[in-house]
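Bit of a strange request maybe. I'm writing a small parser for C-alpha cell strings and I need a real example to test against, not something I typed by hand. Could someone generate the C-alpha cells for this chain?
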Amino acid sequence: MLRYLALGDSYSIGEGVPEAGRWPMQLAVRLRRENVALDDPTIVATTGWTTDELSAAMDATPFTPPYDLVSLLIGVNNQYRGRSADDYRDEFRRMLDRAIGLAGQRAGRVLVLSIPDWGVTPFAHGSGRDVLRIADELDVYNAIAREEADRLGASFVDITGISRQHPALLADDGLHPSSAQYALWTEAAVPTALAMLTG
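Reply from user aminoacidic:
Good idea to test on real output. This should exercise your parser:
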C-alpha cells in the first residue's frame, strides 16, 4: 500500500466531523476507487495550529519517510491571529521544504491545498469580524502558498472558491466545514492526486 501523510490544522483533522468525513480520509477512499492502493492517511494536525506550531509538533513526531503522498493545508490560524504575510511566506516555505523531505525529496508527491475562507461562516459574521478583510488576507496567503508550491514543484489545489460557494455546508459549530463540504474538496483534489500517484 502507498503511504499518505496529511499535515495541517482543524481542516485536516476534521473538527466537528466523524473520522470518515475528514477530507484526507475521503481522498484515500476516492483514490482507492480509482485503483490506487493508498492506505488511510497518517494525520498530523490539531485545531488551532499555526505554521510554527505544526512545525514544533513535527519535531516531536516519529515519522517513517518516505511517504508516497504528503498533503499540506496550513495558515488559517496565522491569518486569524493577525500575523503578517511575510512571516507566513517564510514559515510556509520551511514547512513545504519539510513536506518534500518527508516525501523522499519528491516535490511531485506533495499536494498543497489552499486555505478556505472562514469569513463566509456564521461564526465570522456573528463575531463582528471584517469579512472582506478576512477574504483579502486569505487571498494574499493563498497566493503565497501557490507561488511557493510552484517554485518548488509541488502541486496546488484551490478549494477556497468551494468554501465561498457553499457557506452553508458546515459542522454544527458554524465555522468548520461539514463532511459534505470536505467531499467537494476531495473531488477537486482527486484529479491532481491521481496524476501525482499514477503519472
